[in-house]
Design brief:
The complex is a heterotrimer of chains A (327), B (332) and C (310). Chain A is built from eleven helices and 13 strands. In chain A, the strands form two sheets. Chain A has an eight-stranded mixed sheet with strand order 7-8-9-3-10-11-13-12, sandwiched between helices. In chain A, strands 1, 2, 4, 5 and 6 form a five-stranded antiparallel sheet that branches. The longest helix of chain A has 18 residues. In chain B, a hairpin with a 2-residue loop joins strand 9 and strand 10. Chain B is globular and about 70 Å long. The two termini of chain B are 26 Å apart. Chain C has 310 residues and is an all-alpha fold. Chain C has eleven helices and no strands. In chain C, helix 7 packs antiparallel against helix 9. The chains are: A alpha/beta (327), B alpha/beta (332), C mainly alpha (310). The interface between A and C is medium-sized, with 29 and 25 residues.
């Protein structure tokens, strides 16, 4: 499978009033054409920063690591200048954000905002761009698209707005779509609609997608492969079935077990397995294995930083429990 | 013979007036005629999506909002046969009941006054209800409750911002539990927490329930959590209850089309149980609760709607033992 | 779309001390304040100015009314007159110092009083809402639509000038902005879950206002007070400049400017006494500027959301 995006040793630091913080510490992964990759983790794990850094949407006080490389179609985009980056954003790599309320400009009509993408990247005239926008709205399932293009964001519901965002993101048939918590702010029934939509479009456009979320249910529904992140690092990665059926890392196991199981009856519900402790703040990540303070099976080796250990079936884990001497 | 319920809510309405035009009075009917009952010792779940009114119910019961109509009959923890309509009481007469009926709030970052120490936050309840005869006694009560909720008592002189979300939620829980309440209204107590922390707080709430013999009204939107913790569940849509049943009965045998759609929409964290393409998707958007028409509230999105649904509004009727549903498909 | 960063060796970034463990809310506020360089500068400069006006005269031999006839319109650095003298031989330096006392006092007093009144009005209005709110806010609207300066002029003509009258007049017209600000804050604080929790607990309204609302309003109010102070100083200067404020021989920065205007284009001796306007004007300028810096810094330091990337 052709690798369309390759992120190598992604390291991001921020300079703040509290000192230097490195919330992302050496994240590497690749995305193949047509694949849906899920990045799952809790707050502070760095998943959103990962997404934003691919598109370089980070604030001024952020710094990229020296050995970091982000390759899109083989070419390193982390060193691109403003102009070239602008050409990629929205056209080859686009993004859908979490908050549909604030991701659309309240002062411009929906039509204007979508057609902006066409005008910018495909050089279409206002009229042509508007026609394409109407088509796009129809494609994402918005009823009466001709009427909707003249409406403003506040006239639309949350679910509709998210569909508009998806329309904008897919307008130029990008090769990579990054969706950052695309349905977190939506109600369950609306979320189901949007996920169905994303699945349909994924097939239609064969876009490689990265879905970032904390919701394991969404991951299970949508993804082919998963990266589990904790405290700025990938702690486990693999195919969707491998991860859910045979999770290896204690954190992954703990996470899966701490979710109440809706598939079993009320009578069968058992006390939830908790992961003790709290998610560490980026300014004070623990030494050695970052999960060690919360891990029920930690041992002395864990005081050292574990590397990511790969297995043949594409399953990788960052844990000394799986150290193999026969490499 | 069923025991009389501890809480009986009859025809609860909460309408918010909206200014529109000179004469025309518009209302946001957040809660529009809700009947509920809660038995002592049970956990009743109240679920629904945004705009359904579940949070408003919680806040109205505790009189943060004044009810527009309805009765809140409360048969106190003392389990006498007399019950009192909390809504008919004046603020000063209601005050003693505030000790028994407590609330746990949703947002751990906004439910604690950032300028008060943990000690003061928890002590406030003690002081208002004159519990504890001396400062020392109160301090030791606070120490005890902090330990019970899993926090170190030494932290009582710290400020909320020094704690994580999960810890703050525990402080909020401590604040409610220290008064030894009978009924605790939990308003989305774990929605704002990380997944790994949610489990901790859910377990804590369950432990406290058993230890203090509490009764919970558990308001939430996450059905997996609700299934785990609740004995019975009421599903709300646009200010009305559409279905109430025991937990397993609701999940296995949901009657109302909205409930069925809701249950079908939930993504299960198990890739073998993927429902993509096989769902009973609920089409359309959640309508606005402003001046809703006098028809079945779900009619525009219902896959099974027929004429009657667009003309009248159904009421909650018992379809089978303990299973209530508000839908013309099921009799009337 | 200006968010770009460049690859750098991580060591090149100035590494500050390992993240400080902030213990109390006060430490956090202090740390944020300290990092705001202009605010610290503002505070230091203001303290310097206050010391200058209060202690300064002890080091000067002349009083503000003393007239040195041998030195009329003397420029700065004349013997015994660092800032020069005016048309009556008054020493400008000592007059700037005494004038500073007046201006700072007037500024401070009006700031405090307007803040107190405005906060009280805003608290009641915002918390109780309903008719009280509507009535108070209409009253504020009325007060705001009264043109201040003509009224000030009229009032000072009727009641006479003098420090207390100026303060009175400035406060009567200065509290409205604060009240609106406070009202807005109170409206949002009222909806927070911690206030709801207090209500649900049975805490009485008065206590809610004092214990929950007020402490959360105070920081913003302090900031508003500092800005109010700079406004009051300028207003006093303007009033004095119009001849309505402090009357000579008592100096104020404003009336010094006013007197100097008569001579600024040249005196009978052909001298352009620029020092008569530059010194008082300069002090007004740095006082107001630094009060503003201080206010900015306080606002940022006290805003709980303003810690970058935390």
């Amino acid at each position: 499978m052709e690798r369309i995006l390759e992120v190598d040793n992604l390291k991001i630091s921020f300079k703040t009033q509290l000192g230097r913080i490195t919330p992302l510490d050496g994240v590497s992964f690749s995305l193949s054409k047509g694949e849906t990759l899920g990045i799952v983790g809790e707050s502070g794990c760095g998943k959103t920063i990962t997404a934003f850094s691919i598109m370089r949407l980070l604030p001024k006080n952020s710094f990229l690591g020296e050995d970091t490389r982000i390759a899109f179609r083989g070419k390193d985009i982390s060193t691109l200048g403003k102009e070239e980056l602008q050409r990629i954003r929205g056209k080859s790599i686009s993004m859908v954000f979490q908050e549909p309320m604030t991701s659309l400009n309240p002062l411009y009509t929906i039509g204007w905002q979508i057609s902006e993408v066409y005008r910018l990247h495909e050089g279409l005239s206002e009229e042509e761009a508007m026609t394409r926008s109407v088509e796009m709205l129809r494609l994402v399932g918005i009823p009466e698209p001709k009427k909707r293009v003249t409406e403003f964001p506040h006239q639309l519901s949350g679910g509709m707005r998210q569909r508009v965002m998806i329309a904008m993101a897919l307008a130029c048939s990008p090769e990579v779509l990054i969706a950052d918590e695309p349905t977190t702010a939506l109600d369950v029934t609306i979320q189901a609609q949007v996920l169905e939509l994303m699945n349909e479009l994924k097939d239609k456009f064969s876009t490689a997608t990265i879905i970032i979320t904390h919701d394991l249910g969404v991951i299970a529904e949508m993804c082919d492969r998963v990266l589990v992140m904790y405290a700025g690092q990938i702690v486990e990665s693999g195919g969707i079935f491998d991860i859910f059926d045979s999770p290896m890392h204690p954190y992954t196991k703990g996470l899966i077990n701490s979710i109440p199981k809706i598939e079993i009856s009320k009578k069968e519900q058992r006390k939830l397995n908790v992961i003790s402790g709290y998610v560490p703040h980026p300014s004070s990540f623990p030494e050695g294995c970052r999960f060690r303070p919360r891990c029920s099976v930690a041992f002395d080796r864990c005081l050292e930083k574990p590397p990511l250990i790969d297995f043949e079936n594409g399953h990788s884990v960052r844990c000394w429990l799986f150290e193999r001497n026969d490499r | 013979m069923m025991l009389s319920p501890m809480v009986e809510i009859k025809n609860l309405k909460k309408w918010f007036p909206i200014k529109s035009g000179f004469r025309k009075k518009s209302h946001l009917k957040a809660v529009d005629g809700v009947d509920l009952h809660i038995f002592k010792g049970e956990t009743l779940g109240l679920v629904g999506e945004s705009g359904c009114g579940k949070t408003t119910i919680g806040r109205t019961l505790i009189k943060i909002y004044q009810p527009t109509d309805g009765e809140f009959l409360y048969r106190g923890g003392g389990s006498t046969d007399d019950n009192v309509d909390i809504f008919s009481l004046s603020e000063s007469k209601m005050r003693p009941f505030r000790k028994e009926i407590q609330m746990v709030f949703q947002d751990p970052y906004a439910s604690l006054n950032p300028r008060m120490t943990v000690h003061d936050i928890i002590a406030e309840g003690l002081r208002v209800h004159s519990v504890g005869k001396s400062k020392e006694e109160r301090k030791s009560m606070i120490s005890d409750i902090l330990e019970k909720v899993g926090l170190r008592p030494e932290y009582m002189y710290r400020y909320p911002h020094e704690f994580s979300g999960g810890q703050r939620q525990r402080i909020g829980i401590a604040r409610s539990m220290i008064l030894n309440p009978a009924l605790v209204i939990c308003d989305e107590p774990v929605s704002a927490l990380d997944v790994s922390v949610q489990a901790q707080v859910i377990n804590l709430l369950e432990d406290l329930k058993h230890e203090f013999e509490l009764t919970y009204l558990f308001i939430a939107h996450d059905l997996a959590v609700v299934k785990h913790i609740c004995d019975r569940i009421s599903v709300m849509y646009l200010g009305k209850i559409v279905e109430t049943a025991e937990t397993d009965e609701l999940f296995n045998n949901a009657l109302h089309p909205y409930t069925r759609g809701l249950l079908s929409s939930i993504p299960v964290p198990n890739p073998h149980l993927r429902k993509t393409g096989k769902r009973e998707i609920v089409k359309g958007d959640i309508p606005s609760p402003v001046d809703p028409p006098d028809t079945c509230r779900f009619v525009k999105r219902c896959p099974k709607a027929f004429d009657r649904c667009g003309k009248e509004s159904p009421s909650l009727k018992e379809a089978s033992d303990g299973h209530f549903v508000s839908c013309f498909l099921y009799g009337e | 779309m200006r968010k770009f960063f460049y690859k750098r060796k991580l060591d090149e970034i100035e590494e500050k001390a390992r993240p400080i463990h902030i213990n109390s809310y006060r430490q956090l506020v202090w740390a944020k304040f300290k990092s705001h360089k202009l605010a610290v500068l503002g505070a230091v400069m203001l303290v310097a100015v206050v010391i200058f006006t209060l202690i300064g005269p002890l080091f000067i031999d002349v009083g503000y009314e003393d007239m040195d006839f041998s030195n009329l319109f003397s420029p700065p650095f004349t013997e015994g007159h660092l800032f020069g003298t005016d048309e009556l031989g008054h020493d400008v330096l000592v007059r700037v110092m005494y004038g500073g006392r007046i201006s700072l006092f007037v500024g401070f007093a009006s700031a405090v009083i307007t803040t107190l009144i405005g906060t009280a009005v805003g608290l009641f209005s915002g918390f109780y809402g309903g008719l009280v709110d509507r009535f108070l806010m209409r009253f504020v609207d009325v007060m705001l639509s009264i043109p201040m300066f003509p009224i000030l002029i009229t009032l000072t003509l009727v009641f006479g000038s003098g420090i207390s009258n100026i303060i009175l007049v400035l406060t009567v017209f200065g509290w409205m902005g604060v009240s609106r600000l406070v009202r807005g804050l109170v409206l949002s604080i009222r909806e927070t879950e911690y206030v709801m929790s207090a209500k649900a607990m049975g805490v009485r309204n008065v206590r809610i206002i004092l214990r929950h609302v007020l402490p959360n309003v105070v920081p913003i109010v302090i900031v508003s007070a500092t800005l109010n102070m700079s406004y009051a100083i300028l207003a006093e200067s303007s009033l004095s400049y119009l001849g309505l404020g402090i009357q000579p021989p008592m100096p104020s920065w404003g009336n010094m400017l006013q007197r100097a205007m008569n001579y600024i284009l040249g005196t009978t001796t052909g001298v352009n006494p620029w020092w008569l306007t530059v010194f008082p004007g300069f002090f007004i300028f740095i006082t107001v500027l630094n009060v503003n810096f201080l206010g900015d810094g306080l606002r940022d330091a006290l805003d709980p959301k303003f810690v970058s990337e935390s």
